[in-house]
Specification:
There is one protein chain. By secondary structure, the chain is an all-alpha fold. The chain folds into two domains: 58 residues; 76 residues, no CATH class. It is built from five helices and no strands. α1 packs antiparallel against α2 and α4 packs antiparallel against α5. It is flat, with a radius of gyration of 21 Å. The termini are far apart.
């Protein structure tokens, strides 16, 4: 890493933000922009992508000015567990329902942490499942089963 980069974490976070922000702007170029009063399909991704790229640029500049820690080890196992949890959530939503999918997502994601403790994770997963079912299904009326056909729902 070049010596003029004083905070590698901020630098690489900024690069990632710039990349995704500019990608959203480039993808949005294929759609109509519209105006602030009548927004077209490109308006939101272009504005949000531009803002994300600006935040990334600020992070890169900050990395050159402020000292910080080096990037620690890359924990591939934990990243794969979290990726699998998100994929499993998408798979379980239709068959098992919202509540079981959230419980599995939260439990697997918590298990990826070195500070994993079973009881707090179960309590958080149960609370998030109940809150999500209440908010999305009951209050907002989204058409998703709380318990899917695999569980007799």
């Amino acid at each position: 890493m070049p010596t003029f980069i004083r905070h590698p974490k901020d630098f690489w976070a900024g690069i990632i933000f710039i990349f995704f922000g500019l990608a959203a702007v480039v993808i949005g170029q294929d759609y109509q922009m519209g105006t602030a009063g009548r927004m077209g399909p490109a308006y939101f991704p272009t504005i949000l992508g531009g803002m994300l790229a600006l935040i990334g640029a600020a992070s890169v500049v900050r990395s050159l000015l402020r000292p910080g820690d080096a990037i620690s080890a890359f924990h591939m196992k934990n990243l794969l567990i979290i990726l699998a949890a998100v994929a499993l959530f998408g798979f379980l939503m239709r068959g098992a329902g919202l509540a079981p999918a959230i419980v599995v997502l939260v439990m697997l994601s918590a298990w990826a942490s070195p500070q994993f403790k079973l009881l707090p994770s179960v309590l958080i997963a149960t609370g998030l499942a109940a809150f999500s079912a209440l908010l999305f299904v009951k209050l907002l009326g989204l058409p998703m089963p709380i318990f899917g056909p695999w569980l007799g729902g």
